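Lab notes, practical 5.
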Amino acid sequence: MSEQHDLRISGGRVVSTFTGEEFAADVLVRGETISAVLPPGTPADAREEIDARGMLVVPGFVDAHMHIESAFLTPQEFAAVTLARGTTTVLADPHEIVNVAGRDAMRWMIDAGRETAQTQLWGVPSCVPALEGLEHAGAALSADDIAEMLRWPGVIALGEVMDYRAVVAGDRRMHEITAAARAQDVVLDGHCPNLTGAELSAYLATGVDSDHTKNRTEVVLEKARLGMTMMLQEKCLSEEVAEALLALPQLPPLCLVTDDLAADHIVDKGHLDHIARVAVAAGFPAHVVLKALTWTPAQRLRLHDRGVVSPGKRADLVLLRGELTSFDPALVLSGGQVVGRDGAPARSEAGAQAPAVAPLDSRVDVEPQDADTFRWTVELPDGEHTFRAMRVNERDTYTEAAEIRLPVHGGEVQWEGRTTLVRVRNRYGREGAVFAPLLGRELTDGAVASTYAHDSHNLLTIGTSRAAMAAAAATVVADGGGVAVVGGPEGESIAARMPLPVGGVLSARPAGNVADQAAAVRAALENWGWRHLNPFMSVSTLTLAVSPALKITDRSLVDVVRREAVGATTGA
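Output from the prediction step:
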């Protein structure tokens, strides 16, 4: 103990993620490592001291499943705002930007992440495109590509295996991808909403052993029972799920994850700290929540140097105000350095510059977007016909297949004034535009257009009139990608826009600017009538053709469960 410590955190109470206890202790740090945890006042020289009186000292938060692109930020800007909220480690799956620009995009994200004080680790996207044969993305990864990328520095996982129907069906490509990951002994991340019974067994048998999607409560228990690591994001944190898990003879390992949070949400409400508060409100004890933020995800990611305040562990620490249930970060350290104060980035973390974005030039290669491009033409005789429709809800991203009767005249569907319309247009220089009615929203005249549309990120437009849809889409094209909402008395004025010129999914601007733009878009969507727990995800996952039940791509409507294209008309 004769060697001087760099830092002493004194006067606080440490929370043990092993026992759930709070105990008075001073925490000492040397370099990037916790060098001692001592009874208060124990003699020990330190160059600097932090007064933690009235605060709790806990490990840095670990996010075991998330996508940086969902914040619309570069890795540097993302790190700055989330470190300040206590998130010191993330496993990022960059499947949004890799679907746009392939291997170059992943290299760019990894290089950018190295410039931050946050530990940013990476999973190689397993589904590029998300649903082979039923959509066109800007890139494609083969099993050989993925096997090579799994060996890149900083990569520790295979990104979420979303095409779970292909896995269960024994699809050769997905088998080769999961086999490559198992051969390299990396973490295999899962995505299989409400998969159960024999199909769940088949999925687990490939080595994919986690799930972060929303499941029925009985399926949550079934998956946990079989050893699947359950990762609970906000939409999964119901009182019913909490009660069922806590009633088990032994609580299974749980991770709290963010999955997809926009910049304005992070700035206004928080990151993993917000998810922690939601979990407490759902009924999980605070010490269980803390473990699900720290020790369990660290073990999941095989990061045995963190997740507990203990000598020899990495000095990723969060000082919390008040009671543990508040999860209110006052000070955050990453590797022994202060990176956040009072929810704001420390000076060294603010304003970091992203590397050059030339390899990720946004491509929105489409014809001029005018009202004529939103004419829905069909080869049907004049008269009323029954069309397949997508029905959305206000809680999650599940879409039901529905039907609507619409008139056809002169080969054109007369949808205006009768329904909301969705169109997906390929943005990578290919042919392809698919239309479908959308139900479940009471909208005023207006539209939203976005190139942030999971996972192929084609040009998605939703609207109540052709003129409004054209105005929104033209704005996004002019911005080189992004999101635009139009509305107003004529339904054609720009209510909000968020340019995303980095691959059509990210902004290179500072987090505060992006958060302001995202907040404006969110408000415009809500004013239009698009009410949802997470409106960005509700809009952008209409194109996610691996998420039940009916989705839309640049090639067709897709029956997700049957994993096949279906026509616009039902034949009724």
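Observations recorded by the TA: The chain is about 25% helix and 25% strand. The longest strand covers residues 400-409.
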